[in-house]
Design goal:
Length: 107
C-alpha cells in the first residue's frame, strides 16, 4: 500500500514547479523554513493551511486534523482518500499551502 500511496504523493507534488519533494523515509515539502506537506508512516498525506482554510477544508471534505508520530501537527489537515482521485484539484490546496508558509515570518 505504501508504495502506491507514495507514488500518488509524488505525482501530486510534481504538479508544481515551485517546490520539490524532500525526505527519503518521511517525504515532505518545505519552504521559508516550514514544512507544508507531509507523508507519514501511516501513509496519510497532510497539508498545512491557514486557520480559515483549515476550517473550510475540514467542513467541505469531512477531513480532520493530521497526526504524525502520535502528535497532532499544528495547522495541518488530513487529505481524505476520496480527494486522491483528482490530483489536479488537490494540487490547488498544495499551492495554497505553499503560499501560506511563504506568508509567515522566515525561520
Amino acid at each position: 500500500m505504501r508504495e502506491g500511496k507514495l507514488k500518488v504523493y509524488d505525482e501530486l507534488i510534481a504538479k508544481s514547479e515551485r517546490f520539490k519533494r524532500k525526505g527519503k523515509t518521511m517525504p515532505y515539502t518545505s519552504s521559508n523554513g516550514y514544512m507544508f506537506t507531509l507523508f507519514n508512516k501511516e501513509d496519510d498525506i497532510g497539508i498545512r493551511l491557514s486557520k480559515e482554510s483549515q476550517a473550510k477544508f475540514i467542513a467541505d471534505y469531512g477531513s480532520g486534523p493530521y497526526f504524525s508520530h502520535g502528535a497532532t501537527m499544528k495547522d495541518y489537515v488530513k487529505v481524505p482518500e476520496k480527494m486522491l482521485k483528482d490530483l489536479d484539484y488537490l494540487s490547488k490546496y498544495i499551492e495554497e499551502s505553499f503560499d501560506f508558509v511563504n506568508s509567515l515570518p522566515p525561520k
